[in-house]
């Protein structure tokens, strides 16, 4: 086995909260590995209607005082990201990820929501 090769890279619910998710995915994909497990990643819904990623604001409240925090979050285009995945990987499995629900985007000209999905990617030789 090649030195410093990882069996599995794991990413869960974090790419969409980074400043440069495409660049981060590219850097992670360049690491020697066999599989890449990506879970709870938010995609724009409906899946077939969006060709570009979109930056949004996510607001959540925290008990017990219901204080609200807001922060940027990316909604990814499924066609764009699966295209990037397929450049270096084979998609072995795809699923709708368990989360606390989908999110409607405020200020959208049409009904748009974010839903979380997961992928098991196998590195191409």
Offer a concise description of the structure.
The chain has 125 residues and is α+β, with helices and mostly antiparallel strands. It contains two helices and seven strands.
Describe this protein with a few key phrases.
125 residues, alpha+beta, 5-stranded mixed beta sheet, 7 strands, 16% helix
Q: Could you characterize what this model shows?
A:
The protein is α+β, with helices and mostly antiparallel strands and 125 residues long. It has one domain (6-123). Helix content is 16%, strand content 47%. The chain contains 2 helices and 7 strands, in the order βαβββαβββ. The protein has helices spanning 21-29, 78-88; strands at 6-12, 33-45, 54-62, 67-75, 89-96, 103-104, 113-123. Strand 3 (54-62) and strand 4 form a beta hairpin. The mean pLDDT is 88.
Helix and strand layout, with pairings?
Elements: E1 6-12, H1 21-29, E2 33-45, E3 54-62, E4 67-75, H2 78-88, E5 89-96, E6 103-104, E7 113-123
**Alpha carbon gap, first and last residue:** 14 Å
Mean pLDDT: 88
Strand content: over 45%
Low-confidence stretches: none
Structural category is alpha+beta
User: Helical element count?
Assistant: 2
Q: Shape from CA axes? A: globular
The biggest sheet amounts to: 5 strands, mixed
Helix content: 10-25%
For the secondary structure, the number of strands is 7
| H-E order | EHEEEHEEE
Question: What is the gyration radius calculated from CA atoms?
Answer: 16 Å
Number of domains: 1
């Amino acid at each position: 086995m090649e030195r410093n090769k990882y069996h599995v890279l794991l990413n869960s619910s974090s790419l969409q909260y980074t400043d440069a998710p495409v660049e981060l995915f590219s850097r992670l994909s360049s690491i020697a590995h066999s599989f890449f497990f990506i879970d709870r990643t938010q995609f724009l819904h409906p899946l077939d209607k969006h060709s570009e990623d979109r930056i949004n604001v996510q607001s959540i409240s925290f008990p017990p005082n219901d204080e609200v925090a807001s922060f940027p979050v990316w909604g990814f285009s499924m066609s764009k990201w699966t295209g990037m995945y397929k450049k270096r990987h084979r998609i072995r499995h795809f699923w709708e990820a368990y989360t606390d629900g989908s999110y409607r985007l405020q200020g959208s000209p049409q009904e748009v929501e974010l839903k979380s999905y997961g992928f098991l990617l196998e590195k191409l030789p």
